[in-house]
Design brief:
Blueprint lengths: L4 E5 L4 E6 L6 E6 L6 E5 L4 E5 L4 E2 L2
Length: about 60
């Protein structure tokens, strides 16, 4: 599998952001209350906090 997080523009069907920071299967993605950050968990048992505006893992 590709282990990607892709955020889509649903109006155009085009990807806005693609993140490939996960080495294994992604289990979960959850956004914070205002949509500025999201966190992920994957099979490597690490929690990642991501900033989609910067397209990077911040914690």
């Amino acid at each position: 599998s590709d282990n990607l997080i892709i955020i889509w523009n649903v109006g155009t069907g085009e990807p806005l952001i693609t993140m490939d920071d996960h080495p294994d299967l992604i289990y979960n993605v959850s956004w914070n209350y205002n949509g500025s950050l999201f966190c992920t968990t994957c099979k490597d048992r690490r929690l990642r906090v991501c900033d989609p505006r910067k397209n990077e893992v911040v914690a």
